[in-house]
Structure formats: structure tokens, C-alpha cells
Write a structure and sequence with these properties.
2 helices, 4 strands, single chain, 18% helix, alpha+beta, extended, 85 residues
Amino acid sequence: MAPHGDESGAAEEATVVGAEKRPISTIVILIAMQTEALPVVNGFQLVEDQNSLFPKGVPWVRYYGTYKDLNINLIWPGKDPSFGM
């Protein structure tokens, strides 16, 4: 690790050897509460995934869509049917 203030090795540490340089095309957002998730869902006009990849019985919900050629995935853990939280 470089001494504090020495940025000479910072770029080398951040670069993965052999990694392609390409723009970010997909992001995933994990939001714990529905009241926090819904403004993002509505703002980006995301759609609920009806064919969830999550196991049966798991209350997790995925919303997805695109914004300016960026694939957006929002994951909300959902509410437990027993406890409502």
C-alpha cells in the first residue's frame, strides 16, 4: 500500500489485469423498505418481474427497466407473510 498522499500506485491497484474497458451497462439497487423503493420504481418507470428468479416462498421482489441505455434492476426484500415486515 502506498504512503498516504502518494497516488502513483492508485491507478494500478484499481485496474484488474486483463479486464476489458467497457462502459457500465447494468446496475443493481438493493433497497430495504418499500416506501423507499417505490419512488425509484415510479421515477424510472420500472416493471415488477413476474417470473422471479428467487426461490418460491421468498418475498423478494425485482423491478427492472432501462434508462438512457442503462439496465436498472431494483431488488426489494419484500414483506414476510408471517410478520408483515
